[in-house]
Amino acid sequence: MAIKRDYYEVLGLTRNATDAEIRSAFRKLAFQYHPDHNKNPEAESKFKEINEAYQILSNPDKRNYYDHYGKVDVEGLHGFTDFSFGGLGDIFESFFGGFGESNRTAQRTPQKGDSLQTRLTLSFEEAINGCQKEINLQRIENCPSCHGIGAKQGASPQTCPDCHGTGQVTRVQRSIFGRFSQIGICSRCGGNGTIITDPCPQCHGKGKIKTKRKLTLDIPAGVDDGYQMRLSDEGNAGLYGGRPGDLYIHLSVKPHHLFHRDGVDILYELPINFAQATLGDEIEIPSLEGKTTMKIPPYTQNGKVFRLKGKGVPRLNSKGKGDLVVKVAVVTPQHLNEKQRRLFEELAHTLPQAKLF
To answer: For the segment 262-272, what is each residue's pLDDT rounded down to a tens digit?
Structure first.
């Protein structure tokens, strides 16, 4: 794409300008026209033009191409830098490679501890009825000997001699803009502002220890497979007086050999024979509360569904229960003795043939 203005003219340079002169001109104009510094409505477009010119002329290959052909495909440039006008600090960030920490980084503000997670498997009945379960976990806690300070009893942390307790150090960096002071985390104290000269013998100056704990959980009635519980403040200890993290428990529920769950309903398939289906019957069936009686009316068809109200799953954190849903399955006998066969044959002669069409 052909350019509208000569790049040397944009930076106020001659064509035999040295690299140092190019950097110096860009540094001066970048400060002059950056939109955060210059509120003139035309400053932003001027800054973009200055930036584009510098990207070309500061690169030997791109400058050589431009000097020969008088144009450069700006959109195809590799390594083109867009400062995005996020503040003059963005320019410094681009040249300094991201070094430096804000003042807030090194402050010892309370920080919540890391959360932990674990898994717990329940039986079908435990999930439906609720229960108490014990779990074992390992977490990071404040050292009981030094109460998280890191120094042994009777001793205190000392002010870091490098940062003088601020947790930060100032470094001088040279760039094309000149000399700049940059604030970073103190490497000696890690930003704490203090160092441990007489460490606690139990935690070795860390202020934290790994501890095994046994917790008792109250599992509410009605939880299902995949349900997640959260226990506040049962995770790792916080930093600088911050709260502990949380503990998340992911529940898995084993399948049942008779029942299936559908939300708050329990599904049960009831096998009956031809006589029970035809004549009706009153039979005992299993439920979550033990055996219960159910009436099968005469002429019940295969696949018929019955609902026993209130004999399903307790509604989690609410009142009431779902239903026990019973689906009838009429079972065809696989073996008959002679008397049974004779009776079936006699019955067959008295029954009408089913019409298929």
So the answer is: 999 999 999 99
